[in-house]
UniProtKB/TrEMBL annotation:
Listed Pfam families: Zf_WRKY19
PANTHER family documented for this protein: EMB|CAB89363.1
Residues covered by the WRKY19-like zinc finger domain: 132-154
Annotated protein name in UniProt: WRKY19-like zinc finger domain-containing protein
Biological classification of the source: Eukaryota, Sar, Stramenopiles, Oomycota, Peronosporomycetes
């Protein structure tokens, strides 16, 4: 039976957890560090934040960073609440449409070719007059039936 040799401990240093603020020591401006080989030899001060502007957002140190609040400070929220509510310019001018009658609904869905009473499929046209997707084979003008191809090509 063979034994497995593990890599030296410093090989695991890249996977070590970064320094995190201790909420119990926040009043004293102290930091508590996770014991790991990656940060034993560094000198950290209380103003160090584990994620810097260059820290990738998918890294664990950025995701687990508790130094920045998730919500804006109370003063900013209070300032936002004092601003007058603004409406989007489009919604301000939009008026409610009246409901269409069944006859109007049917007329709106019919083919735009004169005399055709079929329902539209695409671009205001019925299937007979070119509504729907055309065949994806170069040079073919037939309409697509299955997987973007007409009956002839697909």
């Amino acid at each position: 039976m063979s034994s497995i040799t593990l890599p030296p401990l410093h090989a695991w240093a890249n996977y070590a957890l970064p320094a995190r603020a201790n909420p119990m020591a926040a009043a004293k401006n102290l930091m508590v560090f996770h014991p790991s080989p990656a940060i034993h030899h560094h000198h950290y001060h209380h103003h160090h934040t584990p994620s810097t502007p260059t820290t990738p957002k998918l890294s664990l140190s950025f995701i687990l960073d508790d130094s920045r609040p998730l919500t804006p400070p109370a003063a900013a929220r209070a300032r936002e609440s004092r601003l007058p509510p603004t409406q989007h310019p489009v919604t301000k001018e939009r008026k409610r449409k009246r409901k269409m009658t069944p006859a109007e609904k049917r007329a709106a869905r019919s083919c735009c070719v004169e005399g055709c009473t079929n329902y539209t499929i695409d671009r205001g046209l019925c299937f007979r007059h070119g509504g729907g997707k055309s065949c994806s084979m170069p040079g073919c003008t037939a309409s697509a039936k299955h997987r973007g191809l007409c009956w002839k090509h697909g």
